[in-house]
Predict the structure.
Amino acid sequence: MQNTLGSHIVLLTTCIRDLKTTKADLVHTHSEVENVKKELKELKENSQFTSTSTQLLANVMATVENMKKEMTGLITKADLAQTTQRLDETHTSRVESVKKELANVMTTIENIQKITIESAPSSIGRMPNSCDDLHKIGHRKSGLFSVMGNKTVDNVYCDFTKPTNDADFQKMIGFFDVKTSPVHFYVQRISSYRNLNTVIPFELLRLNVGNAISLSGIFVAPKPGKYFFSFSGISEGNAVARVELQVKTATADWSRIGAAWSALGHQTFSLQSTLELAKGNQIRIMLLEGAIHDDKNRIYTHFVGQLLEEEILH
């Protein structure tokens, strides 16, 4: 664009320079004609010519006048003015055209820069927790998005055609069951147990995804979240059975969560609990009374647990 504008300016400069040169030549020629007329007039007044010379002089004067008229007719003031006007109009027209082209180019560049800025990677320095955060990052197409909730990953619908303060700008759909890794276990006994006031240990490890429990019977939460636990069994034939589910946290020693009893004569008992645990919290089953019956052929004792919902940290 700069090259085009420069070439136009050079063309206009050349035209103006040629016009000035032509005008100067015309002035010079006019001056010479006036000098000849003056000299001829002086000769005539001095009577130095015969009648033939006088006629010749008259012819020369006529020729000079014709030359003057022709030269004057060649380039008149009106012609000069018209030529100047045309040059001005051409200059103005071309300059305006160049200005328009330059404005269009600048607009295109600004649009490209805007698109580049909008499409460039951006961040708010944290995980987005709302449609407003997504809008700040650069999202412009409405749809379903995942954002960080208080402790969960939420599923929201963002309508970016509406203002951010509009009630319909963001709609909560639900939350994702996101787990950084699964946690679930299943352990059993294959013999009776009667050691009172002790943690019930296990002898068969059926499942231990996440390595959260050991055969000692102690479960350690590997991550924060909501957990489900279930314990069931039967009592010995000549004794009752009483068990207790206990939890230990970083700020409190072992405390009871729930308990279960059975009557005499191989009666069943069970307990279930859903708990919100922090990472490192512990769970155990204590035998407080009676005895638990089991053998390797029937396997009556079951202890299961799993992570239901993980607390996703920001």
